[in-house]
From TrEMBL:
<comment type="similarity">
    <text>Belongs to the NAD(P)-dependent epimerase/dehydratase family.</text>
</comment>
<protein>
    <submittedName>
        <fullName>NAD-dependent epimerase/dehydratase family protein</fullName>
    </submittedName>
</protein>
<dbReference type="InterPro" id="IPR001509">
    <property type="entry name" value="Epimerase_deHydtase"/>
</dbReference>
<comment type="pathway">
    <text>Bacterial outer membrane biogenesis; LPS O-antigen biosynthesis.</text>
</comment>
<feature type="domain" description="NAD-dependent epimerase/dehydratase">
    <location>
        <begin position="3"/>
        <end position="289"/>
    </location>
</feature>
<dbReference type="InterPro" id="IPR036291">
    <property type="entry name" value="NAD(P)-bd_dom_sf"/>
</dbReference>
<dbReference type="Pfam" id="PF01370">
    <property type="entry name" value="Epimerase"/>
</dbReference>
Amino acid sequence: MRVLILGGDGYLGWPTAMDFAAAGHEIMVADNYMRRHIAEATDSDALIGAPSLSERAAIFEAVTGKAITVRIADLSNPEEMFDLVREMRPDTIVHYAEQPSAPYSMRGFREARETFQNNLDVTFNCIWAVKDHAPEAHIIKLGTMGEYGTPNIDIEEGWIEIEHKGRKDTFLYPRAAGSLYHTTKVLDTDLLWFYVRTHGLRVTDLMQGPVYGISTDEADLDPRLCPNFHYDDIFGTVVNRFLVQAVAGVPLTVYGGGGQTRGYLNLRDTLQCVRLAAENSAKPGELRIFNQLTETFTVNELAERVQQAGNQLGLNVEIKSIANPRKEKEEHYYNPVHSGLKDLGLQPHYMTDAVLGAMLERILENRDRIVADRIMPRVRWS
Ligand code: USQ
């Protein structure tokens, strides 16, 4: 397959590109380095510095013999998006090219507007590029479990049948996002659904929970192929943050009561899910939605697991609740259905002590690079 990966420099984009290339697909990655610029501007650099995208591709080719074509392009500019799609004529487009940080989107007007404009513009341009220049292409869009929020009923995979006054119909599952970033993903889904209905596009929307991990088959071939591993309050997801805090000797920052429950998955499973979706395409005129997670945990459970794994390495990990900088429920029902990707063949990598221990060892090798000022939350929702 010819696969175009939008946002190919990101925490998920780069390892996805390597995974598809290693599997024998023809890969082009595009990125405008927005995350790198925001990380620099907010003093949120990743634990291990990443070479440029072209350098990463050259290292990957030297190690594996497989090529990844790189384009530095601003995908919020329609002409740049259309040029890429006309040049490559992809069978599949994996769309990660969004500002991915909830805290950044809540920092102020400028950051909210930047998130809103980038995320919606890239999705809109991607839709039009496919509609006009590659109508058979399958769009795989990274959505988020945060689109649904935390409703007091089971979360279905994207769609829900509703019976009202004796009549039934199927609708997109109700959404109630908890940050402006998550809200842009809700709007993306609505845009995609409109163009699927009216123009018969084929789309898979992956509602993904928070990802953790640093190791993939290809990333482990050379330390310079490492994914961008963030532990700061802007780009760091909670498990990655807790593991760095355990190594830095900072008490794990549980926000508020710690009963917040989310659906988590290992980075290796993100790669599996995206490839399974690509190799089993949605049909023309179908908006297929999967919930992309493998296990659910409360924040308190995550902290306890990291504490246990850290103590096994002699780290003496403490846990300390701090005032919650976000507006979110700290105690709630949470039961998302997540059978669709398993039905396609997903083999989960669960969060075991061994997985957490291996991550801690990798962080220990880089402990001198940890900057303590990046750990405490710097953005409040209100
Ligand atoms: N949390 C803590 N302490 C911390 C950091 C986070 O208690 O130090 C809590 C948060 O309050 C939240 C939960 O942990 O309840 C998850 O937070 P997160 O920062 O790992 O995840 P989130 O901000 O929701 O965003 C991340 C990714 C985003 C993706 C999303 C999936 O950055 O791109 O869409 O996970 S989901 O959360 O399912 O919407």
